[in-house]
Design goal:
Blueprint: E1 3-7, E2 14-18, E3 24-27, H1 36-50, E4 55-60, H2 65-68, H3 71-77, E5 80-85, H4 95-108
Parallel strand pairs: 3-4, 4-5
Antiparallel strand pairs: 1-2, 2-3
Length: 109
Amino acid sequence: MAKIKSFSVGNGDMFFIEHGSDNFTIIDCSLPLDDVDRAVGMLQELELHRGKKGITRFISTHPDQDHIGCLKIIDDNNSIANFITSAPVGAPHAMPSQSVFFTVLRLTA
């Protein structure tokens, strides 16, 4: 049975889905960088639930800083097999954040 966990982090929450299989999904990745102890605790909880599973997929609901700002931190500690985003390149609502989005992708490639 799948388990879903939500971390409330201001405007950009983070979720993970621990599937009953070898799959593990993260949706968005925002960490409270102004509260290092809480951020470390969240990463530790993510690792505890992930166990030996790799991150099968990372889903970005949209490429705003508060939704993908900690992608590099997550990717540095885990191997992300698939990256999925809902915002098409050039979408008007994504324009202010696209440079951040593609910078993060370059850093994690």
